[in-house]
Amino acid sequence: MLQDIHSNLPLGNNGGDCNIAESDSLFIQYECKMDDDELTMKRHQALMAACVNVFAALTLLSVIRYRQGSISIEKREWDLQTVTASDYTLEVKLSKAQIAQMRNDIY
What we know:
3 helices; 2 domains; 57% helix
């Protein structure tokens, strides 16, 4: 960024709406030229980087999928090893009359 460009460049006001002040900025755009061999090499490097990234993403997805499957198996195995009576318990609400009838039947 250049400061005070109106003293370095003889631009001035050309009768239009363009006034250059001390706080104005000048941006320069340049064209980069390279030969075909260098451009081909850069494209090849970019292609290789993209392929490596795709391979890494696919590897990560396959590892995640494998872990999901193994965790599911481990979860079921743990569930089978920790079977308790509460796994097979059924809660039923009984009225006082039903409880009295059951006591009469039992005794």
